[in-house]
Amino acid sequence: MITSTNKTHNKIGFIGLGNMGVPMAKNLISAGYRLQVYNRTISKAGELDAASRTVCQTPAAAANGVDIIITMLSEDEILKEAVLGEEGILKTFAKNGVHISMSTISPDTAQLLSKAHVTAGSRYLAAPVFGRPDAAAAKKLWICTSGDEQSKEIAKPILESLGQGIFDFGEDAGGANVVKVAGNFMILASMEMMAEAYTLAEKNGLDRTKVAEFFGSTLFNAPIFQNYGKLIAGKQYQPVGFKSKLGYKDARIAFKLSQQAESPMPIVSIVHNRLLSAVAKGWGDTDWVEGVSRGVSEDAGV
Amino acid sequence: MITSTNKTHNKIGFIGLGNMGVPMAKNLISAGYRLQVYNRTISKAGELDAASRTVCQTPAAAANGVDIIITMLSEDEILKEAVLGEEGILKTFAKNGVHISMSTISPDTAQLLSKAHVTAGSRYLAAPVFGRPDAAAAKKLWICTSGDEQSKEIAKPILESLGQGIFDFGEDAGGANVVKVAGNFMILASMEMMAEAYTLAEKNGLDRTKVAEFFGSTLFNAPIFQNYGKLIAGKQYQPVGFKSKLGYKDARIAFKLSQQAESPMPIVSIVHNRLLSAVAKGWGDTDWVEGVSRGVSEDAGV
Amino acid sequence: MITSTNKTHNKIGFIGLGNMGVPMAKNLISAGYRLQVYNRTISKAGELDAASRTVCQTPAAAANGVDIIITMLSEDEILKEAVLGEEGILKTFAKNGVHISMSTISPDTAQLLSKAHVTAGSRYLAAPVFGRPDAAAAKKLWICTSGDEQSKEIAKPILESLGQGIFDFGEDAGGANVVKVAGNFMILASMEMMAEAYTLAEKNGLDRTKVAEFFGSTLFNAPIFQNYGKLIAGKQYQPVGFKSKLGYKDARIAFKLSQQAESPMPIVSIVHNRLLSAVAKGWGDTDWVEGVSRGVSEDAGV
Amino acid sequence: MITSTNKTHNKIGFIGLGNMGVPMAKNLISAGYRLQVYNRTISKAGELDAASRTVCQTPAAAANGVDIIITMLSEDEILKEAVLGEEGILKTFAKNGVHISMSTISPDTAQLLSKAHVTAGSRYLAAPVFGRPDAAAAKKLWICTSGDEQSKEIAKPILESLGQGIFDFGEDAGGANVVKVAGNFMILASMEMMAEAYTLAEKNGLDRTKVAEFFGSTLFNAPIFQNYGKLIAGKQYQPVGFKSKLGYKDARIAFKLSQQAESPMPIVSIVHNRLLSAVAKGWGDTDWVEGVSRGVSEDAGV
Asked: SUPFAM superfamilies, from UniProt (chains A, B, C, D) (predicted)?
């Protein structure tokens, strides 16, 4: 019963108050949950309603006494430490508790952490998301899950308060993260593809913006092509949303997964080298739209 | 005035009754136009309402006595012959008549034909389309135009009876064809991208179809990713719609335009070599979805 | 008998007094031949010993009254004109005369010209060369031949006075040109390969020059790696020997042959796009070493 | 003084009796050295002259009481264990002793081990080699060194008894390994380049072998092009010398170094994906000539 489920889990642990974590935590509070929060930079907790959150000094403290712990961290190693470390989640987490792991991490790490939870008597649900901070704030995230069925049942009402759709990818803990890696690759590939096409149009004397508007409202009328299409066509590189060096990290992860899966991906090589070059040229802190689009323009002498 | 315009142009020449041309001609007849049709294989004219069409023996005959001639042919050379040949359009076409050229041709050819028309005292409007035969039948084509403004005004009601949207790309006759080439490239790149991503998912133990459904209903909810995504994910290669060897031709045209425009396009190289390999392997007559997707699968040993 | 052969052919037609043609013509004169020369810029004939050459006003005149005509021109179209044009070789050339065609042209053109000669009752021998002007002057060219056996016999003593080795590639007129295209590709690929490797070394803190010296004196102790290796390692881009835009033309020819032969060549795509980018950046008139090496350096931010 | 140096180091530790290690150890014995050998599979020591070697049970034992220890192992991790492990070299090695590390390892590992030696009061000299087992047996290895100058002086007579040339790449311990990685990349790139060129020739009706002979005796008259060229041209894939999966490992290492150095290398991507595909197709245990060449052939449908 969802009512009782909500009651049981009324208090949730939440670790990671970054650009994504803060709006997600706010949405959980709006949905009626109280949070035990932990963040390396404690002051970030100040952005949350004081009556609805308890600030903890360690991941272990955030996981203590709750049945659900959510993590939204930036890197595999930080998440591993938060779970397995001296002051990690597993030190205190309840038997049968569910760790909803929403960070973008590699499938490897997901599998490793899933095993550690099982050994400890608790559960791990992979639940990475697609969407930027504004989508997180608007409860418009797309959430991919993988793990055991019971964890999915338990997590469902919580995830519904964070996103606009939940898609399941089976029982293997790494599955949802594979989809996340594949999606990040497809976004990068779309950016490169548009930059190539719009530069071709530009060099033929056409207005890049009109070309992007055409595709974004017809064959390619999807958010990726509309939003990034506008930025790429207009060479609009400010403000910096997602940095080129993080886009490069995504490309590296996709490349590594292609190695592990023994699945050659020539377009991954293209976008990997595009962003590696951006970093090498000192553009690591530019928006990834600039990292891709400016690289294509420079190669074409414009 | 559209009424008078329609009256003036009530009879139209129409050349090219292939898979695209027939449904387009039918829509023109439904819209009240009478057609002077020419096709290499004359019998194709039998698919059109007999009362609404006159069958001609040459392009020159089809262009005789009308102010508008539409062409929908499969190759640059065939179109050149139909315009410039011994029995070509220019032999009979009216002063100030408008040739609406809807075939997929290179920008070069468009510019050459435009000049020939101007020299002859008539006009050329590039109007290539995006859409397969079923879209043509449903008046759902996307039409790109380029050429002089007066031709666009004259062509407008006619094009509106053929498609769901008209997008203009300026006065250079080749402009609309550049957009057509860029769009074909983006479709091919999307196919390769999906084949790589879904094969990665497959080799990680995921269900390709579920992954395609997820992307097609979220970040990539555009027709290209939904329709081709389903075929690629399901390795559904029958029936043959558009052949691999024609997809290869599109890739060659994109590559050539990248050379002419001095605009390097690394993803064009990838899809070009993918389809060149398909042709080399003897898959030229398979559907281009097979040409791309099976190639990616074989490289990954699945 | 070579002596009689030499006597018979003591007078030779020679068309094309460019950077390669002049030293080759001088070597023929040194070997005892008298030349009927034609060059678009007639003044170039002044570099040859006056007693040993007759200056002609047309290709037809140069081919008149001799059994052997040699061509060394820069482009397919120019050679076609020199053979097939109004004042071309075929207008005057002797029955059974042998046209030794030493220009770098496409296999297509070679086959077309071979047929034209056969139709006219004369013969065509493809004999493209590897080597720069200094190698031509030193009689150090490598010569590849293809065509009928009798032509090869007749041409042998003449070719021996121009190069250090003759290698035969069969009867198809295009064969030797395929080898020439393949060799140009391998040179370009070697240049890109070295630029990548030496930039990797540089970014690891090593001395590029020492690395190039090592490879050039051990595993890769061949002229290509020694000569170009030194220039690439030292980023020595002056003086301009062979221009980037001509290197780009070589890459285009290799790419086109890969299309015609249905033989995918991914490294051709890499070097093609490298030089296309060089041309797009305005480096078309730089040495091709700069076109390749500077492109690799810029991509690496150095 | 070299004489006294030889005397001092008359007894040397030697770890790693694989395909390369055995012939190298034999050459050291021939040069008058006595060896303390360690190998995981002890029986391999039986191939060495019994009077000249002492068999040890651990790396620590092999390093005990000598001033020089040589390692020739197959992987970074195995070497790290042999140096840093419970029974590793550092447990017993002499102050100021020189570890001559001849394995193919990453620059990272070299730097890490160098630091560990310095901390322990001993020295580390990187000395990776180019050459296959037959070259090792014939003392024809090419040896690259990097490290401190004194170590190089001490190692010189020993290395001279193993190879035909020593090339120095500075003081940074990782330098020589960067050159080794770069060289392995250049070999792989040369193989791919030849496979592409010879397949192009084949599809144009030429004899691959003749084409390879031409290049191997003219512009590309270096061992790499002669030896591999013959195998590639003849599609001679037996016996298996160096496995495709090891070639793939080399490509991965080159790719990783390109990432670490922020130096984009498009041809690395090509050869990486070529061998990744070979492994994915189940060809991991074939000779790497087959891994590369058969892949190119299949893509071309031959």
From this structure: 6-phosphogluconate dehydrogenase C-terminal domain-like, NAD(P)-binding Rossmann-fold domains
Residue numbers in A near B207 (CB within 8 A): 169-170
Q: Do C193 and D189 touch (CB under 8 A)?
A: yes
Q: What is the pLDDT of residues D273-294, one digit of tens each?
A: 999 999 999 999 999 999 999 9
Q: Return the active site residues of C.
A: 180
How many other CB atoms are found less than 10 A from the CB of residue C238?
Answer: 10
Please count the helices (runs of H) and the strands (runs of E) in chain D. Answer: 14, 9
> Residue A46: in which H helix or E strand, if any?
none
Which residues of chain B lie closer than 8 angstroms to D302, CB-CB?
A: 280
Q: What is the ipTM of this complex?
A: 0.94
Q: Under an 8 A CB cutoff, do A272 and D269 touch?
A: yes
Question: Are residues B164 and B242 both part of a single domain?
Answer: no
Q: Are residues D229 and D139 in the same domain?
A: no
Model confidence at A3: pLDDT above 90 = no
Q: What are the Cα distances from residue D37, in Å, to B109, D12, D34, D82?
A: 75, 8, 9, 13
At C259, which CATH number?
1.10.1040.10
The answer on C160 and C271 residing in a single domain is no
Q: What is the dihedral of CA C89, C94, C97, C101, to 10 degrees?
A: -10
Q: Do A193 and B193 touch (CB under 8 A)?
A: yes
**D74 falls in which pLDDT band (50, 70, 90)?**
confident
B300·D280 Cβ contact <8 A: yes
Using CB atoms, list chains with 3+ pairs below 8 Å to chain A.
B, C, D
Nearest residue, CB atoms, A266 vs list D252, D273, D279: D273
Residues ≥6 apart with Cβ < 8 Å to C138: none
Distance CA A293, CA D268 (A): 23
What φ, ψ does residue B152 adopt, rounded to 5°? -65, -40
What is each CA distance from C289 to A155, A280, B182, C24, C189, in whole angstroms? Answer: 60, 22, 32, 25, 12
Residue B159: which H helix or E strand, with range? helix B149-160
**Tokens of residue B116, six digits:** 């020939």
Final residue of a structural domain among A156, A172, A188: A172
Query: Are B150 and B227 contained in the same domain?
Result: no
B273 Cα to chain C: minimum distance (Å): 6
Judge if A14 and A156 occupy the same domain: yes
Beta strands in chain A (DSSP E): 11-15, 34-38, 53-55, 68-71, 98-101, 123-126, 129-130, 141-145, 163-168
Structural domains in chain D (count):
2
Q: What is the CATH number of the domain that holds C125?
A: 3.40.50.720
Same domain, A189 and A272: yes
A181 contacts on B by Cβ (under 8 Å): 200
Please name the member of A262, A269, A280 whose beta carbon is closest to the beta carbon of D269.
A269
Last residue of a domain, one of B138, B172, B206: B172
Structural domain containing residue C71: 2-172
Is D263 close to C199, i.e. CB distance below 8 A? Answer: yes
Cβ distance of D193 and C194 shorter than 8 Å: no
The percent of residues in chain A predicted with pLDDT above 70, rounded, is: 97
| Alpha carbons C275 and C253: distance in angstroms, whole number | 13
Distances (CA, A) of C20 to C44, C58, C125, C172, D271: 12, 20, 18, 25, 36
Amino acid letter, B90: L
Q: Tell me the pLDDT tens digit for each residue of B230-271.
A: 999 999 999 998 999 999 999 999 999 999 999 999 999 999
Tokens 């019971």 belong to residue: A150
Q: By a Cβ cutoff of 8 Å, what residues of chain A touch chain D?
A: 252, 258-259, 262-266, 269-270, 272-273, 276-277, 279-280
> Which member of B280, B298, B302 has the closest CB to residue D300?
B280
Are A111 and A22 members of one domain? yes
For residues A110 and A200, state if they share a domain. Answer: no
CA-based nearest residue in chain B for residue D274: B299
Q: Is C126 exposed, middle or buried (0-12, 13-18, 19+ CB in 10 A)?
A: buried
